[in-house]
Amino acid sequence: MIVGLVAALVSACGRGAAAPQGADDSLGLLIIAPEERAAMAEIAGDSLTGGSISLADYQGQLVVLNAFASWCTPCQQELPVLAVGEEKYPQVQFVGLDVQDNDEAALGFLAAKDATYPVIKDPAGELLAKFTINPANGLPVTFFIDEQGKVAGRILGKVTAASLAAAIKSLT
């Protein structure tokens, strides 16, 4: 158990060694009981495509917020899963949080995998730092925001189809 937790924590981009081959990607999945969920800090900013976005705009629906960067290898590996998830789960709002990245690189990265969900720019990582359930503060990390605007869970490291399905099933 301890080895798995350490592998999940250090698998983030720029935060230590990669997880060993065959490591269980679901170890980073955490679902928070409804009575233990805390209100989310305000997450709002400039959209990657212009204008502005606030997660408060999506209150009333489950939100999958994926923090990524185009230069992050695990982020590159998980993007196809998220793009398919956006289509597979129309009742869920997918949103990206582009952390410490170049706008042109991020736009090309998303377009290459047909990811069309809205993306908030986080050039200094300040929005990502508002999430206290991200112990390594690394990428990728995906947060689940419930209908009341509370943090309901997270996946540390790369999202898989199985971990995404398990999280959404638990929260809907």
Please describe the structure with a list of short key phrases separated by commas or semicolons.
6-stranded mixed beta sheet; 8 strands; 172 residues; Glutaredoxin; alpha/beta; 4 helices; 27% helix; single chain; disordered N terminus; 22% strand; two-stranded antiparallel sheet
Please explain how this structure is put together.
The protein has four helices and eight strands; from the N terminus they run αββββαβαβββα. By secondary structure, it is α/β, with parallel strands linked by helices. It has helices spanning 2-10, 73-88, 103-112, 161-171; strands at residues 29-31, 44-46, 52-54, 63-68, 93-99, 119-122, 141-145, 151-156. The longest helix has 16 residues, at 73-88. The protein has a single domain, classed as Glutaredoxin (3-Layer(aba) Sandwich). 40% of the residues are buried. Residues 1-11 and 14-26 have low confidence and may be disordered. Helix content is 27%, strand content 22%. The strands form two sheets. Strands 1-8-7-4-5-6 form a six-stranded mixed sheet, with helices on one face. Strands 2-3 form a two-stranded antiparallel ribbon. The radius of gyration is 15 Å and the shape is globular. β7 (141-145) and β8 (151-156) form a beta hairpin.
